[in-house]
Amino acid sequence: MLPVLRSCLRNARVVFSRGDYCSHAVSSPQLSSLLTTTTSDHQEKCLDSRNQSNVNLVAAKARVGSSPDEIILSLAHDQVCNNIEVTDDLVDKLLFRFKDDWKSALGVFRWAGLRPGYKHRPDAYDMMVDILGKMKQMDQMRALLEEMNRNHLLTLKTVGKAMRRFSGAGKWEDAVRMFDGLGTFGLEKNTESMNLLLDTLCKESKVDQARVIFLELKSHIFPDARTFNIFIHGWCKANRVDEAHWTLQEMKGHGCRPCVISYSTIILFYCSQYNFSKVYELLDEMEAQGCPPNVVTYTTITVFLAKSQNAEEALQLTQRMKSAGCKPDTLFYNSLIHILGRAGRFQEAVDVFEKEMPNTGISRDASTYNCMIAMLCHRGQVSKALTLLKEMETSTLCKLDGQTFYPLFKSCFRLGDMNLLSQLLDDMVKKHQLSLDRSAYALLIHGLCRANKCEWAYHLFEEMIGKDIVPKYQTCRLLLEEVKLKNMYDTAEKIEDYMKKL
Which regions are annotated as PPR repeats (predicted)? Predict the structure, then answer.
């Protein structure tokens, strides 16, 4: 019998034995509801556990470094995997697990698509497009896009992901060609799709090219406020703030009123230059134009004031924000906790986390917890940090990410607790479906080398290379020196061979 149910029934028997039925006894409908709820919760937990077990089983068969075809064959010939029911949830979790390992991701994606009775959703295709593009596998991405087009699965969302990945890989012309060919995908060239292309180019520092394309298109595709805000962001990113100011005027000429996003983007530029006199000028201009700054504007300024060692001025600005009637949000509180922590005002940061946020009804997100966990680890309060980690795991409002674990990994190295490190690493990858990126591998390999755990470090090094994640030269160098000290000559030779290819 379930422990919760056993306890409830035991309490019910105590009440009944007292004979005080009217005021305390659990009624039959209430008990029935309790039984149903408890059973439902148990079934849901069992289902989640089974789904997680299936994810781990399939993931274990998708060997790191294998080709997608090898992975498909390995899964197809495995009786246990063939007995697993393929669901959308299973595919989503596997793709999330392998988001930094395109070979394994593509292998399990193809395997799932071949299973009888299962058909991939468009969202799964989009995830696969994004993974291939992120890992610079452009030929594979193109092939998948062609497949989607044949099956009438391409949407503007897919096109947006592909254009961003093309531009990120230095192939911005391919992004433009994709826009030109929207008609062949059954999609329309309009303000929304034009903005998608312009935004893609501007974010990849191709604002001049975006401007030329805009001048060609604006005669038959009418721009909106977002179009100009994209250019304001692009000019600021290119350190050409004068053009950003000029775009504000152009915006007005097209009948679009500059909004808080328009001004806040330029404020962000001046903040990055630590030119706070210009920042305060723009704040005054916003208020004069009837466009008061919002919480994002204030948060941006406070963050950069803190970075410039002006923590007290940053905290004064938070008071100005509250006086203006601008309500704090989660991101504001996250920055406030960070500022207080850096200013050495730890207890005030804790009070914001434990009292002010709950009292104002502002929910905590992953970044809130990550900031507190990092702060606690830095102060050597690892047990409290682990308590917050457990709290995150039970929260429905936030999802753990890599940044949650990095301070804890560092604490493990400081404490020399390799058992805790192993447990945390296992939970990160298997329990929470998080993959290690280049920074995480570097952190672990460097830490393990210093902890005299070269074999473990080399295992992670091999795993990293198998995922086509290129390590930094200094990571290779450190690992090579450590394995030589341990007389691991075969391993040293393999590392040297790899370094020659870099």
Answer: 224-258, 259-293, 294-328, 329-364, 365-399, 437-471
Asked, for residue 373, whether it belongs to a domain, the answer is no
Given 61, 80, 99, the domain boundary residue is 61
Q: Which domain holds residue 29?
A: 1-61
* pLDDT digits 0-9 by tens, 33-56: 434 444 444 444 454 556 788 888
Specify the pLDDT at position 309.
86
Asked if residue 443 lies in contact with residue 409, where contact means CB atoms within 8 angstroms, the answer is yes
Number of domains in the chain: 2
As a whole number, mean pLDDT of residues 441-459 equals 95
17 within domain boundaries: yes
Is pLDDT above 60 for 479? Answer: yes
Assess if residue 426 is contained within a domain.
Answer: no
pTM: 0.69
Contact 16, 28 (CB under 8 A): no
Residues 6+ apart with CB under 8 A from 357: 333, 363, 364, 368
Residue 183 is assigned to a structural domain of this protein: no
Q: List Cβ neighbours of 414 (8 Å cut-off, separation of 6 or more).
A: 380
* Amino acid at the residue 493: E
pLDDT tens for 133-169 read 999 999 999 999 999 999 999 999 999 999 999 999 9
